[in-house]
Amino acid sequence: MLDIARIALILGLIIFLLREGVKIGHVMLISALAVVIFYGMDASGVVFVVKKAATERISIMLLLSLSLIRIFKLVLREEKILSHMMGTIKSSFNFRKAAMISMPVLMGMLPSLGCA
Question: Is the pTM of this model over 0.70?
Answer without folding.
Answer: no
